[in-house]
Amino acid sequence: MSLRKLSTSAAAFILALSLAACGSPSQNSSEPNSDAVSSTVESSSALPSEQETAGQELAGDAMVFGTATLTYAEFYSGDVSSTDNFDAVTSATTSKYEIMANMSTDFVDETANAEGYHITGVKNVNVAVPASELEAYQAVNDSFAPIEGEAPTQYKTVKMEGNKAVYSATQFNIADTVTDATAELQTGTSWGDYQINVTDGAKVHLRNTREDEGFDIGGEIQGIILETDSGFHVGMEHLQSIWVQPYEVSFNVLADNTHNTHISGFDNLPELSKLVGETVTKITYIMPDSAYVYEFDGIYIKPLYEGTITATVSDSYDSVTLSTSDFSAFEKGKLTVTYTLGSGRSREVTTLLETELADGTADYVLEVSAIDGLEAGGTYGAVISSDTYADITVALPISSGQEAALETLIASAKEKLAVEPDNATLQEHLREAEELLANTSAASTEAGSLIGELTQLTSEEAGRGERGGH
Fold it and tell me: Which of 108, 345, 381, 414 could tie 112 with a disulfide, CB 3.0–4.6 Å?
C-alpha cells in the first residue's frame, strides 16, 4: 500500500480529528457538544486534493483507510447527541435480513434464527486507522478491510484506547443540501408512532420506487440523523426507522409493537422519546461515500394521544362511525378521510371528508362519488388532527376493492413464483397477503401498502437486484 505525505494544513486538519477521537467518550457513552455536531453535519468538509491514496502520513504515523462493520453506537459516535441507549433492533421474523446492503445483522439461517434476529449496526463504513494501531484495531474488529486506491471522501477516524476502539465524528462529504423538499408528519402508522414522509423538490435524490436507477439515496443507505431547532440529534436504525424507500422515516417512542409486528424489540427509545416536543429542521441521509442534508422550516413533534380511537364503516363504505363522541380535549379538532392511489411522488389523494369534530356526532358521511371511476384497490385513510395532539391515524377496515386487488395479486405472485421459485421476497409478501385476507380486522392502510409492494414485485421489471420490501 503506497503512503503519501499530507500538506501541513491537511495534516493539521486530520490531527484535529484524531485528537477529537482521543478525547471522545467510549462506545457506550458518547455525549458530543451539540454545536460541534451541527457544524459537522452542515459542513461539506471537502478533503485536500493531495489525499488521493489509501494511506496517509499523520504526525509521523500513516493513516490506513478501509471499510468496517460498526455497531450503531460506533457509527453515530460524535454525530448524535447521545449513543448511550443504542443496542439492537429485534426482528420477530426471519425475513428481510438482506433488505438493505449495509444493514448488519446476526442472522445465520432460518433454523438458528427461527425466533428472529437482531439488526446490530452498519456494514461497509469508511474508517481511517493510524498504521501503528492497525494490528490492535483488527484484533477488536476483524471486519476491517483496507481500501486500495483513492482515499474515501467520507469516513470516521478511529483511535485505540487500550483495547477499545474509539471513533470520531464523521467527516461528511455533503453531496447536496436540499431546501425545497416538503415533509408530512403522520402518527400511528403501520411502521411507527411517528412517520415523516419526505417529498423531493426540483432535484430528486430519494428513492421512492423499487428501481434504484436515478436515485442517489436508496437501498445502500447507512444511516439517517434527525436534527431539531434546539440542536438535538438522534440517529435512526434499519427496519425500525430506515427503509428501502427512505423517503419514509419512522420512529417509536413507546415499546408497543402492535402497529409493526415484524419488530419485537425497538431500540434507542429513551433518545427517540426526546423528539416529542421538539421541532425537526434537518434530516441527513447517509450513504457510504456521501451525505444529503434536507432542511425544513420545522416539523413539530406533538405529543401522542394516549387513548384509542377506532372506526367502523358502512358496507358501502360511504360513512364512518368513530368509537367516541367526546372530543372536548381536542382543541380545533378535525377529521379528514381520504382515498389514495399509488405512493411516493406518484400518489393521488382524493379527500372524501374534511370536517370539524363535534361532540355527540356519531356518523360522518363520505363523499364517495368523488372516487367514481378511479381504480379499485386504493387506500382509505382517516386522520384526526388538532392543536392538542399529534395527528391520530384511525384504522379503517380493508375495503372490498382492496380484497379483490389482493386476490388478483396473489394469483400473479403464484404465477411468477412458478418461474422464480427462489424469489424469497415475493414468497414473503405472498404469505403476508394471504394472512391479511384471512384477518377479519385487517386495516386499509396495511392492505394498501401490501398492494403497492406486490404490484411492483409482480411487474415484468421487478427482480433486477431487488432486495426487499418497505
Answer: 108
